[in-house]
Amino acid sequence: MHLLEDIRAYRRNDPAARSAMEVLLLYNGLHATIFYRLAHWFYNHRCFFIARWISQVTKAFTGVEIHPAAKIGRRLVIDHGTGIVIGATAEIGDDCLLYQGVTLGGTGKDTGKRHPTLGNNIMVGAGAKILGPFQVGDNARIAANSVVLREVPPNATVVGVPGRIVKISGEKLDQIHTPDPVMLEIERLQKRIARLEKLLGDEDDRRCD
């Protein structure tokens, strides 16, 4: 059941996927997920060495490293896949989409729960890093190459380094067509400066009169 759902999810998310057989035989993201589920079964049955061996062999063949202790929901799509790292205490909900180079990692200082928890229907753009034991809410979008270090509310879009939250209602966003929060802040300051200059100019005019 999981395998059929995963294949359908790949075909739904990747316009280049021409058939179920192509996805099954040629998509390294799907292969990584299949072997993760096998490794996770062994991990849950306390066969830790076998679980880690499977994950490391999978990493060598697919370029995707998923710790067998991680918890992953249904219909995960890993697009291209190379360079993805998912840590041991990471959790991923249903219907998520990860592009190449994504890291769900820790900060290096925490014990226990060290990695992020992703809700449902989340898109994480290429090269993005989500670091720390916090929640990323349902339907969130993380833009390419963003570095996320704090909690993200549902339906939010995160852009930049460090990641800043930008909420846009009613607008479909992807990992490229996202606003630049730094530029938005500069534009806001420019408008404020223009208003202040106008006020100062009006004050000078009154004094001259």
Question: Which stretches are low in confidence, meaning pLDDT under 50 for 5 or more residues running?
Answer: none
Give the count of helical stretches.
5
Helix content: 25-40%
| Overall spatial form | elongated
Order of helices and strands: HHHHEEEEEEEEEEEEEEEH
Count the strands?
Answer: 15
Spatial order of the strands forming the largest sheet? 3-6-9-12-14-15
Classify the oligomer. single chain
**Measured on Cα atoms, how large is the radius of gyration?**
22 Å
Distance between the termini: 82 Å
The computed structural class is alpha/beta
- Main sheet properties: 6 strands, mixed
Which band does the percent of strand residues land in?
Answer: 15-25%
Descriptive notes:
- With 209 residues, this protein is α/β, with parallel strands linked by helices.
- It has helices spanning 2-13, 20-26, 28-44, 48-62, 181-208, and strands at 64-66, 71-72, 77-78, 84-86, 91-92, 97-98, 103-105, 117-118, 123-124, 129-131, 135-136, 141-142, 147-148, 157-159, 164-166.
- The strands form three sheets. A six-stranded mixed beta sheet has the order 3-6-9-12-14-15.
- A hairpin with a 4-residue loop joins strand 14 and strand 15 (164-166).
- Helix 3 (28-44) packs antiparallel against helix 4 (48-62).
- It is elongated, with a radius of gyration of 22 Å.
